[in-house]
Amino acid sequence: MRVQSQLSSLGQKNEQPGITTVHGKVLEVPIIDFSDPDEEKLIVQITEASSNWGMYQIVNHDIPSEVISKLQAVGKEFFELPQEEKEAYAKPPDSGSIEGYGTKLFKEISEGDTTKKGWVDNLFNKIWPPSVVNYQFWPKNPPSYREANEEYAKHLHNVVEKLFRLLSLGLGLQGQELKKAAGGDNLEYLLKINYYPPCPRPDLALGVVAHTDMSTVTILVPNDVQGLQACKDGRWYDVKYIPNALVIHIGDQMEIMSNGKYTSVLHRTTVNKDKTRISWPVFLEPPADHVVGPHPQLVNAVNQPKYKTKKYGDYVYCKINKLPQ
Ligand code: OGA
Ligand code: NI
C-alpha cells in the first residue's frame, strides 16, 4: 500500500528526482574558504559543517603549496624504498607505541561479518609539539624527510590554532577553550601516511574500513587518486579531490567536548585497480593522561552530559579493544 501511494505521488512534478535534485549537483562535503575576512560567516560555516557532516574541505588556508608537495614527495619516496629499508622503522612488537612503519598488505581484516583483504601500508610519526618528537621513527631516507615534515608541522600549527578558535566561538565559548580542553600546547599531532598500492581486486579489499577517528580533529591531505568517502544520513559520498585543500574530520574527542554539537564523521576508503593512493592524515590528539569530557560550560541541568569524562588513553584502549566507553 505504501509503495503504491509513493509511486502515485511520483506523478507530481515536485516529487520527480530530475526536478527536485538541487541544480543537478550531488550533495558534497562542504568547501570552506579559510581566508574569508568575515569571521562571523566563517564561524557559521565551520559550525554547520562540523555539526551536519563532521567533514569539510578548507581552501586558502595559507599553507604554501610547495610545503604540501614536499610533504607528499618525501612520503611517497619512503614507501617506494625496498621493503627491508622500510622495515628498519617497523613498530617494535609489543612496544605499545603507535609510531613506526606497519603493513596490512595481504592480511585478512574483518568488517562486520565479512572478511576482506586489507590493502594499506602505513607509517606513524608524532610531528608536534617538538617535545614529543621521536626521530628514531622518522625515515632518514629520503634525507629531506625531516625538513619537509617539520616545515609542514610548523605551518599546520597556524591552521590548528585558527580552527580550534573558530570551533570554540561556534559553541559560544571563548576562543581558547577547546584547545585548552584538548591539552593546550601539549596537543599532539600524530601524522599517519597511508599507502594504498594498486589492487587487482578492489572489490575484495578495502583501504580502511568504516570508522570514526578517535582524535579531536584530523586534518588530511590526499594525493589525486579518489578513495575517501564520508557517510551522511546513512549514505556514502565521495570526497572530491581539490588540489591543496585540507580535509577536516571531526573526531570522537571533539564530539565529546562539544557534548554532541559537533559530529564525529564516519568515513572509509576504497582502493584503486591501477593507481597508488596515498594520504597524510594528522590526528590532533590530547596526551594519553589528559582527561577529556563534555566542556563544563556546555552542560547544566537542562543540557546533561551525553558522554563520560575520561583519560584519552583509556578512551583509546576501550575503542581498540571494542570495550564499552
Ligand atoms: C585514517 C583514514 C583516510 C584516507 O587513516 O584514519 O581515515 O583518506 N584515512 O586515507
Ligand atoms: Ni580516519
Question: How would you characterize this protein structure?
Answer:
α3 (39-52) crosses α6 (145-170) and α4 crosses α6 (145-170). This protein is globular. The chain has helices at residues 2-9, 17-20, 39-52, 65-79, 83-87, 145-170, 177-181, 252-257, 312-320; strands spanning 31-33, 55-59, 100-103, 108-111, 114-118, 121-128, 188-196, 205-206, 217-222, 228-232, 235-238, 246-250, 267-269, 277-285, 291-292, 310-311. A hairpin with a 2-residue loop joins β4 and β5. The chain has 325 residues and is an alpha+beta fold. It has one domain: Sandwich (Jelly Rolls). The termini are far apart. Nickel (II) ion is lined by residues 211, 213, 267. Its cofactor is L-ascorbate.
Strand order of the largest sheet: 1-2-12-9-14-7-6-3
- The unreliable regions are 1-24, 109-114
CATH class category: Mainly Beta
Q: What would the CATH topology be?
A: Jelly Rolls
> By CATH's scheme, which homologous superfamily applies?
B-lactam Antibiotic, Isopenicillin N Synthase, Chain
Instruction: Return the structural class.
Output: alpha+beta
The level of helicity is 25-40%
Which architecture does the CATH hierarchy give at level 2? Answer: Sandwich
Strand content: 15-25%
Distinct ligand kinds: N-oxalylglycine, nickel (II) ion
Order of helices and strands: HHEHEHHEEEEHHEEEEEEHEEEEH
Number of strands: 16
Rounded average pLDDT: 89
